[in-house]
Amino acid sequence: MALATVFLRSDDGEARWRLSLTGRILAVNIFALVVLAGGFFYLDSYRTQLIQERSDRIGTEAKLTAAAVAVTPPAAVQGLLTRMGAANQTRLRLYRGDGPPTDSWAQGGPTYTLRDPAEEPWRRHVARFMDRVIDNIVGAEVPERFIEPPVDRLGAWPEAVQAQKTGAVATAIRRAPARTPIISAAMPVRGDNAGVLLLTSDQRDVIRTVRAERFWLGIVLLLTTALSVALSLFLARTIARPLRRLALAAHRVRLGRSREVQVPRLPSRRDEIGTLARALSDMSQALRQRIDATEAFAADVAHEMKNPLASLRSAIDSLELVKDPELRERLLVVIRDDVRRLDRLITDVSEASRMDAELSRARFESVDIGHMIEQLVEAREARGLSNGIRLAFGRPHRGSAVVFGDGQRLARAIENLIDNAISFSPPGGLVQITAMRDGQQVVIRVEDDGPGVPPGERQAIFNRFHSIRPEGEVFGRHSGLGLAIAKAIVEGHTGTISVTDREDDNRGARFSIRLPAAEK
Question: pTM to 2 decimals?
Fold first, then answer.
């Protein structure tokens, strides 16, 4: 599972590393673990604070013991020191001059034992190793090693010498061979038992407490790490891997391999990634369909242009050889017709090709369909209608047939239907146009008296270059794009267009457009 991804910058072409989504998930979770691991370093401050509290407490004990010794008869001092040392698990020594001290261990025996690390089990070695590692990381101050002096005299203890000089309690912290803290406190004694009292204590429970906390913190950190890694891998599997598959498919589509790429739809996913996958799959299919339609359109354009070009070339080639004026005039008529046909074809092809782009940029506004059709009918009648064909428009109430769209494009679609109906109408025929509000839709109908559209052709006639022309019409007068353009415009306004037979039992076709009505 990749933790880093190479991205190629488009401006300088330099490949640079970026952390992948999987790596970021792991990084975020590891950051939380690092914060939790900081608890190990908090334990050092906790240990320092705990030792300082014990040092203050032992200093207080030294003061109290010195006060007790000062009022105790000299003969009872040894017993007092023995009892108090046993009660507090400390060693008490009273120095009088430079001679050997009165020692609480002389009668009661040792109250603590300095352990030899070489004789302890491996777990203790691991614990001491962890102590040294953490001390090195946090830069903890390591106390000097505790060593009993070969000759036990007052001068061998700096804290005792300091207490004698200052007349106040003096403490010192040292470490035993097993790294346990040894705290000593010295306090001058007044009265008949004048001297310096030295109290030493092995604070093994401090290290035991810190190590126990560190052990359970390590267990929590280990379990949290395992859970965090498992969750990271789960998230990477459920998020990063599907996204990587989608990105790879999109990259292959970008390289022009859309026909051979199947973008995963992830039907089992009901979350945002599943929605994204299905949207990308639909987009790629729509792109594939658009590419196919573009290729088919280009092929159709080439095919449609070949016929007039071939006719035009033949007429031009023949024109150089023909000397008969009448025949030359016929060839010129053919040339003019072919030129007009090519001009009409190129114009319609240009409009059909840019229809989608123009509709996507168009600014829609409220359009009164009734008023629009009325203007179209008047303009068409002003240009003149051949063969005595008539137009009839049943105008709706003003403001009742209003849609939201591009008025110029909608006018072109309706005009194409009217032109189509006129071209199929017999001499003296009637083209009827209606527009009305039907619930949440506006319905526009154009009916003619022509031969109608066979049921098998009612979908095909809206395809580009598909044309069923009436009998007797001059070939090439229509490009076969009028209905296709009308369909593109209507569907660009989220409407529908269809053709059926007339419902009044008369011969002819009925073209219907349904558009969403504008909200009032």
Answer: 0.47
